[in-house]
Write a structure and sequence with these properties.
- The structure holds 3 protein chains of 3 kinds.
- By secondary structure, chain A is α/β, with parallel strands linked by helices.
- Chain A contains 16 helices and 10 strands.
- In chain A, helix 4 links the parallel strand 1 and strand 2.
- Chain B is α+β, with helices and mostly antiparallel strands.
- Chain B folds into 2 domains: about 10-230, Rossmann fold, CATH 3.40.50.300; about 240-365, Nucleic acid-binding proteins (OB fold (Dihydrolipoamide Acetyltransferase, E2P)).
- Helices cover about 20% and strands about 35% of the residues of chain B.
- Chain B has helices spanning about 45-55, 95-105, 115-125, 140-150, 170-185, 195-205, 220-225, 230-235; strands at about 10-20, 20-30, 35-40, 60-65, 70, 80-85, 155-160, 190-195, 205-210, 215-220, 240-250, 255-260, 260-265, 280-285, 290-295, 305-315, 320-325, 330-340, 350-355, 360-365.
- Chain B is elongated and about 75 Å long.
- Chain C folds into 2 domains: about 5-60, no CATH class; about 80-310, MetI-like fold (Orthogonal Bundle).
- Chain C has helices at about 5-15, 25-60, 80-125, 130-140, 145-155, 160-170, 185-210, 210-220, 225-235, 235-255, 255-260, 270-280, 285-310, and strands at about 65, 75.
- A two-stranded antiparallel ribbon of chain C has the order 1-2.
- The chains are: A alpha/beta, B alpha+beta, C mainly alpha.
């Protein structure tokens, strides 16, 4: 689908303003008495009040003095051949581990097979927080210490839009052809030039089977009076609002606007102010499910599968009849990454169906790799039949990718959302 | 003006143990109303513990404490009609001098507490410093504030715990006289704890000498001095020359054989339990009562005489001269002679005899002299 | 900007203040001045690098405006004072709530911390082993992370937990009543997290308290309670003031307790708002102006408090 919303600051006046701002920042740094590399200046300023550096850098003034007028930073040189290393920032519990939780079997196999060492870091806690930490350096084109980062689709979209991701050399990733067809055409990375999906998941309804014996089919079940004060929704706007929109007959992937968004936010506001929704949570909603504070919620598919391993199938998850959200965490190579080719080799490795199946069996999210299901059918037919990991066509027909927002929309809608959830 | 509140203090069989250590052993004391009473003794003798029990800051292990005839043994400190001048003054650093003095009055809800406190400060001549904080005052000034803080409450008994210990000599002398004046004016019963025998004798009507948790002797200072009843008192309160012998003659005047020399002592001045023939007693005399009998002169009749011995030291102190005379087996004796005209000239190395009036001799139970001063 | 300005200024003043002495004295004084500069330098540089510059950056950022047509999080320098008006209009509630919660938490921490400190310092006097052990117990919560402790409270106060069950049974809580996701839970968590900050300075004050002053109070007709009120408490005020400041200031800016134990309607604290404006919305000017307002408000409140308690000299 075509996307007319991508808008680099082409307006000459704006560009001039940015230039001016950049110059002012440079002057300010120079007067602080610190000479030397721009990165060091950046650190000097940034180590004080948390995030001040990010303030300076992220507000578009972070370019190195004397940089070209082009908004996007240029990619770093690739030292992959000289240095057999790749550094990967991922979310927690998002890669197969051995039983002791000390080793990553597929990574070990990768290193054995290719001779490339992997520095695997569970450094992503939250899309926004992570972006806040690294955006200043990205704007400068600096190395942020990772060769692969794994943000969620909409954040990946922002990074690609701003030129913070390097273009993939698909010649190094022949297995990219294994990407499932549903994810080949996405609006956040048109033509799939910058990002490959790591895992996907559904936003849907989750509940404690003992507390909600009737089960749930639609979002309206969440608003039943007997659940008052026991319901939680996700602080991730795309999933919560996406599900509400779907329940109101709006496709979050479609061409909706303020009116549709406002209708969704009003419903949410009402449920929050009435106290029906107890809390709005990030990842920690699973703790509340376990503690019994939350009986039913908007949650993520893989979490529930994982919880059930430990809690004896206590919980259930369903994509509501009106539809659920489909999100993807995307592997991309940051602009300052110095091991691009190694990173691509790693992506290629994880797009082998056998490897993808091994990961899917552990992380329980939707695998984006064709052929993994066939591998799984041989090793674990039960898991292969789980539509939360290998969705069938019926499930896929129900899920929708939240459309990419323009910067203006992002600011406006997120602001409204945060206001309503009281954060 | 005599305080209407003043009262006598009585202790009956008061005993205090700290674990296995006995600080005070079965103490009986009577402090008459309006008297200036000193508890004198070396450190660790139990005098401060006794004072703290009277104040209510320690509970006796056994015994009864009564003030003005009222049993206060179980009464909490703040309900006892006593006040204490603490050794380190214990002035409240967060209050002004005036508020310190008014503290007790306010607690008792006395009307016009501040005016009375100001009057109290006037009696110690510190009215002009009422707005200062204690740490802005000198040691002597703090001492007076502590005194005023206790006195304004017109306690039945005022307890003073080494109140002058932190002051220099001149200030101490001045405060001794002032305390005495205040006590005489106020007529309050003072119980004054000190280890300074001179201070105790200067100030108190009655002195109780304490040692190892016991009262060794109690009485007016002059009586204690003239007629000590134990070797400890004889040595702690001033100095004494002591010799040991056995009784050979009984009667109004005892005859005592001391290493072959016959000394005499009036039987009324002997505090030993047994004075029969053969009883072992110690005889003593104060150094200033002893005369030096130089070679060639004779002691007057009615004197006890010891010697000859050798003069080992002569110290001139202005009003008197102090001699050390080595009497061999009888030890070194001291003689303080007034520097009045007619005193014999004696030099170190001279052989002399020592003589004193029989009536100045005192007798103690016959134990060897304990180490004292 | 001359970053070391305060240093030389003071160093130069030193020789100037002395009487014009001999040359040797002058040299000695100058050397002392140079040494003074040397000693001042690290602290001054530290302050400039980690306080002055960041505060200026914060002030500047608070006045930025969005780059027209720019992406999320792109701003440019301006003097847009309106940012403050908007921020205050939108977020005066969480701001006021932060101070209210911080006040409650400070009162709670004082109520819990003072008796603890008193017990250890006064009752435990002369028993150093016991005192040491009790102090370790007070500090022990520090050994686990702030976030973990807050999460632990979530478990303790959970609907199916013993506390809530017991309160239901006792009819203290209505059947549909709860403790998590309430302001109560937020305040309890804040209180708990700051009790050591309260107890330790008070302990230090009480430890220094001369026991004879307490005896003097008793001797001067003050009962135990009156002695506490008129002697012990006033003398421990420096500890109480430090403790309340050490609790109030961070509690007012805290966001972990509110975001983990709060709800969406009436528990949001300003720290949480700043955090989400900054990291989720990338609305740096709003986050910065709220930070400035928070800093200023705390500075004013603390100033008034210290003046009011009359403990400037005791601090």
């Amino acid at each position: 689908m075509s996307n007319p919303r991508r808008r680099p600051p082409a307006d000459p006046m704006v560009r001039a303003l940015i230039q001016q701002a950049r110059g002012a920042a440079a002057a300010r740094r120079a007067s602080a008495g610190s000479a030397g590399l721009s990165r060091r200046q950046f650190l000097t300023v940034g180590a004080g009040v948390a995030g001040t550096a990010a303030l300076l850098a992220a507000c578009g003034t972070g370019g190195a003095p004397g940089a070209s007028s082009s908004a996007a930073p240029s990619p770093a040189a690739d030292v992959s051949d000289a240095e057999k290393l790749v550094r990967w920032a991922n979310w927690t519990l998002y890669l197969d581990q051995n039983d002791a939780g000390t080793e990553y079997p597929t990574l070990n196999a990768f290193t054995k097979q290719t001779g490339i060492d992997v520095e695997y870091l569970e450094d992503i806690e939250d899309n926004d927080t992570f972006y806040g930490k690294v955006s200043g350096q990205l704007a400068n084109g600096d190395d942020i210490g990772y060769d692969i980062v794994t943000p969620t689709d909409w954040m990946a979209g922002r990074m690609i839009r701003l030129g913070y991701a390097q273009e993939l050399d698909l010649a190094n990733i022949p297995n990219a052809a294994n990407l499932v067809s549903t994810l080949r055409d996405v609006d956040y990375d048109e033509g799939r030039k910058h990002a490959l999906t790591w895992q996907s998941g559904f936003g849907g309804l989750a509940w404690d089977k003992a507390k909600v014996p009737g089960g749930m089919q639609s979002l309206d079940d969440l608003w039943k009076p007997e659940l008052a004060g026991k319901v939680e929704v996700l602080s991730e706007m795309h999933d919560t609002i996406g599900l509400i929109m779907l329940s109101q007959g709006v496709d979050p992937a479609g061409d909706w606007g303020d009116a549709e968004y406002d209708a969704a936010i009003e419903l949410l506001r009402e449920k929050i102010t009435s106290g029906h929704i107890r809390q709005v949570k990030g990842n920690s909603y699973t703790q509340d499910l376990v503690s019994g504070d939350c009986w039913a919620c908007i949650g993520w598919s893989g979490d529930i599968t994982g919880l059930n391993y430990e809690a004896d199938n206590r919980f259930d998850f369903v994509v509501p009849e009106a539809g659920g959200t489909l999100w993807s965490d995307e592997m991309l190579i940051p602009v300052g990454a110095t091991h691009k080719k190694n990173a691509e080799t790693l992506m290629n490795y994880y797009y082998e169906p056998e490897v993808a199946a091994q990961v899917a069996a552990w992380v329980n999210y939707v695998t984006p790799v064709d052929g993994a299901r066939e591998v799984m059918e041989k090793s674990d037919p039960e898991l292969a039949a789980d539509t939360n990991i290998f969705p069938d066509d019926e499930t896929l027909a129900k899920v929708h990718v939240f459309r990419t927002l323009t910067p203006a929309e992002e600011t406006k809608y997120n602001g409204q959302y945060l206001e309503v959830i009281g954060a | 003006m005599r305080s209407p509140h003043t009262a006598s203090l009585e202790l009956w069989g008061v005993r205090k143990e700290f674990g296995s250590f006995t600080a005070v052993e079965s103490l009986d004391l009577t402090v008459p109303e309006g008297s200036f009473f000193a508890l004198l003794g070396p450190s660790g003798c139990g005098k401060t513990t006794t004072l703290r029990m009277v104040a209510g800051l320690e509970q006796p292990t056994s015994g009864v404490i009564s003030i003005g005839g009222r049993d206060v043994t179980g009464t909490a400190a703040h309900r006892r009609p006593v006040n204490t001048v603490f050794q380190s003054y214990a002035l409240f650093p967060h209050l002004t001098v005036l508020d310190n003095v008014a503290f007790g009055l306010k607690r008792k809800r006395v009307p016009d507490a501040r005016a009375k406190a100001r009057a109290g400060l006037e009696t110690v001549q510190l009215a002009h410093l009422g707005d200062r904080r204690p740490n802005q005052l000198s040691g002597g000034q703090q001492q007076r504030v502590a005194l005023a803080r206790a006195l304004v409450n017109s306690p039945s008994v005022l307890l003073l715990d080494e109140p002058l210990g932190a002051l220099d000599l001149a200030l101490r002398r001045e405060m001794q006289l002032e305390l005495k004046r205040i006590q005489a004016d106020a007529g309050i019963t003072f119980v004054h704890v000190t280890h300074d025998q001179e201070e105790a004798m200067t100030m108190a009507d009655t002195v109780a000498v304490m040692n190892e948790g016991r009262v060794e002797q109690l009485g007016p200072p002059a009586e204690l001095y003239e007629l000590p009843s134990t070797a400890f008192v004889a040595n702690f309160l001033g100095r004494s020359n002591l010799v040991t012998g056995s009784v050979v003659d009984v009667g109004e005047v005892l005859g005592v054989d001391v290493a072959g020399t016959r000394l005499r002592v009036p039987v009324g001045r002997v505090s030993a339990g047994s004075t029969g023939v053969g009883a072992v007693v110690q005889l003593g005399v104060r150094p200033e009562k002893v005369r030096i009998v130089a070679n060639g002169s004779e002691p007057t009749s009615g004197s006890n005489v010891l010697g000859p011995g050798k003069v080992t030291d002569v110290s001139f102190t202005g009003v008197s001269t102090q001699y050390q005379v080595d009497l061999g087996d009888l030890g070194v004796h001291e003689v303080f002679a007034q520097n009045s005209s007619g005193a014999p000239e004696v030099r170190v190395g001279d052989a002399v005899r020592l003589a004193w009036d029989v009536d100045h001799t005192f007798g103690l139970a016959g134990e060897p002299a304990r180490s004292g001063q | 900007m001359t970053t070391v300005a305060p240093g030389p200024a003071i160093g130069v003043a030193a020789p100037g203040t002395g009487a014009p002495g001999t040359g040797a004295e002058d040299v000695a004084a100058r050397r002392a001045g140079a040494a003074g500069v040397g000693l001042m330098l690290p602290g001054t540089l530290y302050l400039v690098a980690f306080f002055v510059i960041p505060v200026f950056a914060l002030l500047a950022t608070s006045l930025y405006v969005p780059v027209p047509g720019g992406d999320v999080g792109q701003f440019m320098p301006a003097f847009h004072w309106q940012n403050y008006v908007t921020a205050l209009a939108d977020f005066w509630q969480p701001l006021a709530r932060s101070f209210w919660f911080a006040l409650l938490a400070t009162a709670g921490a004082l109520a819990v911390g003072y008796p603890i400190a008193y017990l250890i310092a006064v009752r435990g006097r002369g028993r150093p082993l016991l005192q040491g052990m009790l102090l370790v117990l007070v500090v022990a919560p520090f050994f686990t992370s702030f976030v973990l402790r807050t999460i632990a409270w979530k478990q303790i106060l959970a609907d199916d937990g013993y506390v809530v069950q017991a309160l239901h049974w006792l009819h203290v809580l209505p059947p549909d009543g709860r403790l998590t996701a309430t302001s109560f839970a937020v305040v309890v968590s804040l209180t708990h997290n700051f009790v050591p900050f309260m107890a330790l300075p008070i302990y230090a004050s009480l430890e220094r308290l001369d026991p004879r002053l307490v005896e003097a109070g008793g001797d001067l007709y003050a009962g135990p309670w009156t002695t506490f009120r008129t002697v012990t408490l006033p003398l421990s005020m420096p500890g109480v003031v430090s403790g309340t400041l050490l609790t109030f200031i961070p509690a007012a800016g805290d966001y972990v307790s509110a975001s983990l134990l709060g709800n969406s309607t009436n528990t949001a604290m300003i720290g949480q708002v700043i955090d989400t404006r900054f990291f989720r919305l990338l609305d740096y000017p709003t986050a910065a102006s709220l930070s400035v307002v928070l800093m200023a408000a705390i500075a004013v409140l603390v100033g008034l408090y210290v003046r009011r308690t009359g403990t400037e000299d005791l601090l």
